[in-house]
Amino acid sequence: MTNPPHTQLRFANTSNLTHLPQSAGVYQYFSADGRLLYVGKAKNLKKRIKSYFTPSAKLSPRIASMVAQVREIKTFVTPSEQDALILENSLIKSLKPKYNILLRDDKTYPYIYIDYDQDFPTLDITRTLLKKRNIAYFGPFSTGARDLLESILQSLPLVQKKSCLKGKKACLFYQIRRCLAPCEGKISKEEYAQILTQAIDLLGHKKKLIAKLESKMHALAQHCAFEEAAKIRDAIAKIAQMQASSSIDLLDGSNLDVFVFCADGEHSGVIMKLFVRNGRISSSDTLRIHDECLDSVNSIESKQPAQSQTTHPIESPESPTKALHSLYTQALLNHYKAPSPLDPDSILLPYEIGAFEDRERLEEILKVRVGKKITILQPQRGKKRELITLAQTNAKELMRLESQQNHNHKRELEALREIFALSSLPYRIEVFDTSHHGGSSCVGGMIVYEGNAFIKDSYRHYHLQGSDEYAQMREMLTRRVLDFESNPPPDLWLLDGGAGQIAIAREILESAGVQLDVLGIAKHKLNGRSHRAKGSANDVIYMLDSVDSIGCARVDSDISIDSDMHQTREVRLLPSDKCLQFLQKLRDEAHRYTISFHRAQKLKKLTQTKILGAQKNLSPAQMDKLLRIYGDFAHIRELTPDQITKALRQRHKPTR
Fold it and tell me: Which end of the chain has fewer CB atoms within 10 angstroms, the N or the C?
């Protein structure tokens, strides 16, 4: 009998589990109020799910707490284990279940490349695999790729831009001695090839490049060109960070990627990545993880054996080892989404985590995704083992430094969680604001705060069509939710608004099946105008959930409750409260970012109005009316004089 592709089971006792499918697939656990608790994968869904609910199951306290809350089970059958693995990762990222570890890692790293099919090839940057044969790639570079490229082009007289070769006359770069004008035949291909060889040598030996830059920086400083010297100083700092602090050289031209997870306390940790190309470390990167589901993983990290184990005991459902394997699985699936310019031949993982259970399935998935076989290894000795040790050492040092810097910030987040009864510590916060002028130039902005800093690379702005602030907020949040699979949800949404915006957010999140804490902050009004003075503004915070869910207020806080607006709660804190001031800081940054974008769009519109009005011999008022009728400048450009006259005489918007 063929199993159904999807099964939904209301869970009351273990007898209901007999109807579960025995195929590979994904299972989801839900609580009594419909909140998604956990997403898992299995080769045999019935066997895996029953293992949670048998009396002899050895469950960790965290998993036992989860199982006690399960009231509904949903399963989805997949054609293979590999498909289950991919689907599980996708659901975890988009739905953010309470008891799953969430990784946010969709970074695409840049590479420097040389196209040898060109007569005079130069250096350039790409993030994708180019469909050409005779190309050499260098990287990946987690940071500083652009600074490295520009520094080499400033140090050697290569072709500075591809467009330079299209010209027939020497350009400004030749005049300032940064190019030898191959476009005019002032250098032969052989001579140029020697300079290109020097550039490749600098790419592989960054200390030589830094020495050149330092010499140039000192020369500029002596001639009082301090601004130029400062730019080179900043470039040197970024390139120096790319230096591999290791003498390890595999001497075999290996291409390897190293992934190592190190725990830091109960609810956080770091994934350290090392990228080895041609036998040498080309760059490194880190992924910070803040998740309360890490407590079980941390327990096994702290008890890693000094020697490898030849046998591994049978693990209970979602044991610390399985949780740790799931973390590595997510990290690899997130990292290898498509072919990159220089994929590794092998991936190195620590052998202390035990035999990696998803190894074979992951190797098959990666082979399909990147188009080549990548072997997953867990070395116990030799140079490859030294690479893993190096990654672990650097991860622990990074955590030590961050721990010293972020102690006070964590206390602030803990206070925020206590006051507003948040489901988790809000390590990553997204803040939303909208802006418009009389219903025109409607825009929105999202800013991101994580690790005690604003993450400006993650800022996003939105062009909106809504006619009022509620419709605009709905449109912006809906678009953000649709992006959850590629850019997972944060720990907290903070909206610039009150009960209405909170209700909209809850409706959107519930329709998407996502559990996410939401707060709103409404500006204090003084004489009918927003009062933004820090330390004296009585801004009101709005939150979701029932009265019982509100945390205990601190002594200097005053909390009042308004239960009319769909269970939205109104919370008032003293103006001097640090939590209120922290939320105000986030709101003000979102407002600054959004209003700056709005002003830029408004200025752009005014400029276009002036130029097009002059072309069509129209006044600003006439242009404004035409924009209200037709909506954009492109349509107005195509209008004939008779059509413009007819449109200006009409009182109502014509039917297009």
Answer: N
What kind and span of H or E run contains 595? helix 578-616
CB 444 within 8 A of CB 476: yes
| Residues 370 and 390 sit within 8 Å (Cβ to Cβ) | no
Contacts of 524 (CB under 8 A, 6+ apart): 530, 531, 537, 538, 539, 540
Q: Which of 591, 596, 598, 620 is nearest to 607 (CA)?
A: 620
Nearest alpha-carbon partner for 19 in 73, 79, 83: 73
CA geometry: angle at 8 spanning 5 and 12, to 5°? 145
DSSP secondary structure letters along 470-486: HHHHHHHHHHHHHTTTT
Q: Are 476 and 501 in contact (CB under 8 A)?
A: no
Given a cut of 90, whether residue 470 has pLDDT beyond it is yes
Q: Max alpha carbon distance in the chain (Å)?
A: 87
pTM for the whole thing?
A: 0.78
pLDDT, tens digit, for every residue of 237-287?
A: 888 877 544 556 666 778 999 999 998 766 788 999 999 988 888 888 988
Token pair for 597: 């974008």
Residue 289 Ramachandran class (φ > 0 left, ψ -120 to 50 alpha, else beta): beta
Are the C-beta atoms of 48 and 38 separated by less than 8 Å? no
Q: At residue 378, what is the residue type? A: Q
Q: How far is CA 502 from CA 483, 570, 595, in A?
A: 20, 11, 21
Is the distance from CB of 146 to CB of 119 less than 8 angstroms? no
What span, in angstroms and rounded, lies between the C-alpha atoms of 634 and 611? 13
* Buried b / exposed e along 486-511 (16+ C-beta atoms within 10 A): ebbbbbbbbbbbbbbbbbbbbebbee
Q: How many other β-carbons are positioned within 10 Å of the β-carbon of residue 567?
A: 16
- From CA 377, how far away is CA 379, in angstroms rounded? 6
47 in Cβ contact with 23 (< 8 Å): no
CA gap 36, 26 in Å, rounded = 13
CB atoms under 10 Å from CB of 374, counted, come to 21
DSSP letters of 421-481? T-SS--SEEEEEEEEEETTEEEEEEEEEEETTEE-GGG-EEEE---SSHHHHHHHHHHHHH
d(CA 560, CA 543): 12
**Residue 521 CB burial class (10 angstroms; 0-12, 13-18, ≥19):** buried
Q: What are the residue ranges of helices labelled H in 171-317?
A: 172-175, 189-204, 206-222, 226-241, 294-301
How would DSSP label each residue in 261-285?
Answer: EEE-SSSEEEEEEEEEETTEEEEEE
| pLDDT at residue 559, rounded to an integer | 44
334: exposed, middle or buried (C-beta count within 10 Å: 0-12, 13-18, 19+)?
Answer: middle
| Type of residue found at 483 | D
Closest by alpha carbon to 226, among 238, 235, 218? 218
Residue 398: exposure state from Cβ atoms within 10 A (0-12, 13-18, ≥19)? middle
Nearest to 156 by CA among 116, 208, 112, 107: 208
User: For residues 330 and 241, what is the distance between their CA atoms, to the nearest angstrom?
Assistant: 27
| Most confident among 150-154, 230-234, 262-266, 429-433 (mean pLDDT) | 429-433
